[in-house]
Amino acid sequence: MQDLQNALPSAPEDARSLVAWYRAQKRDLPWRRDRDPYRIWVSEVMLQQTTVAAVIPFYERFLKRFPTLRALADARVEDVVAQWAGLGYYSRARNLHKSARALVERGGFPRTWEELIELPGFGPYTARAVASLAFDQKTGVLDGNVIRLLSRRHGSDVDWWKPRGRERLQALSDGIATATDAPADLNQGLMELGATVCTPQKPACLICPWSPRCVARLGDRIEALPRKRPRREREIWIWYPRVIEKRGRVALIANAYAPFLKGHWITPGAVRKASVAPKRFDYRHSVTHHDIFVVVGKGETDELAPKADVKWVPRASLKEFVPTTLIRRAIERSTSQE
Ligand code: SF4
User: Fold this and answer.
1) DSSP tag of 245
2) How far apart are the CA of 217 and the centre of ligand 1, in A?
3) Do residue 188 and residue 328 come from a single domain?
4) Sign of CA dihedral 327, 331, 332, 337
5) Which residue among 185, 200, 224 closes a domain?
6) Which residues are bridge partners to 241 per DSSP?
7) 169 lines ligand 1 (CB under 6 A)
8) How much distance in Å is there from the Cα of 148 to the middle of ligand 1?
């Protein structure tokens, strides 16, 4: 608890210097131009997946297609997923859509993270980001960049991937957010400083507003913090998709049988965990820690379970329903087997 006790007296000065630094240095980004919770929310969900530079074109395209919460709520989920293509993690697009409907139904955004987190797809980070950036709630954000920044600033070597370590860092973030009257700029500053100055390698300590009090810098422990997360072991899976086609339409079911792409619409089939890679396969694909070797086969309609919830998707619309190439490739491969 040493870092927490030390952090509290320094919180007002850390907050003041960070807000001043952010106001002077901030990048002009499209979602920072107003405080519309909808726009902030969309940008934060996208930013969890990739860098600011990569998000900008996706964000602008998405907002053009769905300019308001109402427009998103009224859209078909397939259209939302199609607009998400290229960003990955399609469950986030589905949750965004689900939450938009729930938000419209309740008459708009609640103003606190405690209420936002009740909605599908709002994790602790997104709920806190929207509540503070749009509504000035004094709550601190915690993402990968902020974890690195706060771990170094306070010399905190907790296991940040475990709930207790997370709670410690969340308390540090909340401590500084409650020590300012500008929680929106404070949180943007945390994210910006973590992303642009306190970088994983070679942080630019010379221009950091926290440099005089940074425990990692003063103790020469920058490279040791934050702690390295133990690597998750890779798993080898062999996937046998069965491509079943009827009059130009392909059968898709909600995935409940494969450990990867849970909840996605995929072809029926089977999976097997293996200890070594197979010698014969059609193609290979990786999803998170799963190494997937795909063996494509053509199936018949009587292979479908009698009560299965089947979606028959025209080949021409596959891109809309199946944004991931892992599944589309299997369907394309089956054609070349004819
Ligand atoms: S002084 Fe260096 S290590 Fe410490 S918070 Fe700033 S950039 Fe990070």
Assistant:
1) E
2) 6
3) no
4) positive
5) 224
6) 269
7) no
8) 9
For the Cβ of 198 lying below 6 angstroms from any atom of ligand 1, the answer is yes
Residue 229, in any domain of the structure:
no
- Ligand 1, residue 211: give the atom nearest the CA: 1
The answer to whether 301 and 266 are in contact (CB under 8 A) is no
Q: Domain with 149 in it: what CATH number?
A: 1.10.340.30
Asked whether 72 lines ligand 1 (CB < 6 A), one says no
pLDDT tens per residue across span 177-211: 999 999 999 999 999 999 999 999 999 999 999 99
Weakest-pLDDT range from 2-16, 128-142, 191-205, 293-307: 2-16
Task: Report DSSP letters for 130-174, one per residue.
Answer: HHHHHH--------HHHHHHHHHHHT----TTSHHHHHHHHHHHH
Catalytically annotated residues:
44
Q: Whose CA is nearest to atom 1 of ligand 1?
A: 211
State the distance from the centre of ligand 1 to the C-alpha of 193, rounded, in angstroms: 9
In a shared domain, residues 117 and 8:
yes
Range of the domain at 180: 2-224
User: Which residues, in sequence order, are bridge partners of residue 310?
Assistant: 253
The verdict on the CB of residue 208 being under 6 Å from ligand 1 is yes
Q: Is the CB of 205 under 6 A from ligand 1?
A: yes
Please tell me the pTM assigned to this model: 0.76
Total number of domains in the chain: 2
Nearest to 41 by CA among 114, 105, 135, 106: 135
Do 117 and 210 fall within a single domain?
A: yes
292 plus 245 within the same structural domain:
yes
Find the Cα–Cα–Cα–Cα dihedral 170, 102, 313, 244, rounded to 10°. 60
Q: What digits encode the pLDDT tens for the residues 223-236?
A: 999 999 988 889 99
Distance 42 CA to ligand 1 centre (A): 29
